[in-house]
Specification:
The chain is of the alpha/beta class. The protein folds into 2 domains: about 110 residues, Alpha-Beta Plaits (2-Layer Sandwich), CATH 3.30.70; about 350 residues, Aldolase class I (TIM Barrel). The chain is built from 18 helices and 23 strands. The strands form 8 sheets. Strands 11-21-20-18-17-14-13-12 form an 8-stranded parallel β-sheet. Strands 6-22-23 form a 3-stranded mixed β-sheet, with helices on one face. Strands 1-4 form a two-stranded antiparallel ribbon. Helix 6 packs across helix 17 and helix 14 packs across helix 17. The longest helix has 23 residues.
Amino acid sequence: MESTVRLDHNHQLTVRDFPYIVKWREDRCKRCGRCTAVCPTFAIEPSIALQREIRSEGIMPEPRVSRKIVTIVRQSTDIDRYCTGCGACTLVCPNEAIEPEYNPQHKFLFHKNKGGHPYTRGGRRNDPNPSALDHLKFTRISMLTDPALDAGRHEFRIRTYLGRIPSPTELPLKVENGRLEINRAVSRFAPPVREIYPVMIGSMSIGALSPTMWEGLAMGITYLNEVEKMPVVMATGEGGIPPRLLKSRFIKYFILQIASGYFGWDEIVRAIPRMVDDPCAIEIKYGQGAKPGDGGLLMANKVVRLIAEIRGVPQGIDLPSPPTHQTKYSIEEAVAKMIQSMAMAWGFRVPVFPKISGTRTAKAVLNNLLRNPYAAALSIDGEEGGTGAAYNVSMDKMGHPIASNIRDCYLDLVRQGKQNELPLIASGGIGKRGNVAANAAALFMLGASAVTIGKYVMQAAAGCFGDEMNRCDVCNIGKCPRGITTQEPRLYRRLDPDKVAERVVEVFKTIDVELRKIFAPLGRSTELPIGMSDALCADDAAIAERLQIGYVC
């Protein structure tokens, strides 16, 4: 019996095996219970311990041993209740008595594979080092040689186009009596184009995000469009949108995404005849930068009644999306069928474009899209993009950086003389270190027409705890301590959608000011410096050579 007990203890984990060790100060703790109540993973719990105390008193002291029961806060060593380091306990503690501390010597990944399942997580790539975008500098500063602008007083119009731009000879125009007029006979065949703000909110579905977070984002972009007159748009992610929004005039601020699971698209297709306005665009998701070549997954504990109704599925089941659209077996077939059928569904009034993972095959996809008149753009998602759920090995070891991928595609368009025809949309790691405007401007100069941000919005608008040191990153299991990526009412009620909307507006107004500061020395006020790579240099020689830009040191 004793040997069995020793064997059981021998196979238990210690807190030293976990990525975060909770430091608890008994002398400061007043046992209010706030920390254990707020922990989303129940990694800490109130407990009791037998405390042995030796005291010596009097002229001739004789040691006396006493024992008493004391209340403590204990960290769990259950692998399914590990501390994620979110720091929610520190946030609510009135006496700063508790704090998770990163353990660089942990062996977490050696144990988090129960049942033969690799470790899955949310967030994004574990890489604290700066990306290639953060090595870029804007070195073309006009003073006396070129007409620079005053960023504070000059009038700017920072906009881009989402949709295929025909060549001058293909425009639906004609000259009559010396005047340029629209040719009505062919104008109805012109590809649809939207004028939007060049920084978009990327694909985050209702289901992956909590109801309060998604509502806050939707209110924020509506305010930006209707009050601030900034045409910011948001992609819905896979899973549909609430029916009330689908049939409202606000649908024009959203890009509807259709992915390989087709979740929520029955409701969308049935609602088309009753839509009072068209959506901004349709995005067909073929890949995601954080998990290239892999399908998506919304775990069962996130598929509550509301999400099940929107997606048209039973409640409480896992919702996996296949790695590819199962009815399409090549890019040629996908371009011919998927894009054309989506364009036809809205009477060729709505731009339709695919989203792919950053990959060395991106140029092959681009060249197929160039031959299809219904393709409105190409969206490329780089390796540093975030995700709600992916295998650790996919996030950290697979993918292609966005800077070089966008540059390769843009230079390929230049060689074909079509650099102004098919817009390129870049995403993945933009604003990873907070400088979203600088990263966006650099991508414009490398050839992108627009960029999308996701994790940055979650951090700036809702205070996401996650970082690139595997802190928190429990988006996939729905235990978000901030209430951003969860469907549990006790967690998402912590998030005020009005505050989220307010912060979204502030974030985009700040981005706008910073973009003006970057564009003003270039003399650009009404058009983006797309492909203006002579304004860029890198402080890393290898990066400069790879991107074919200048090197400074």
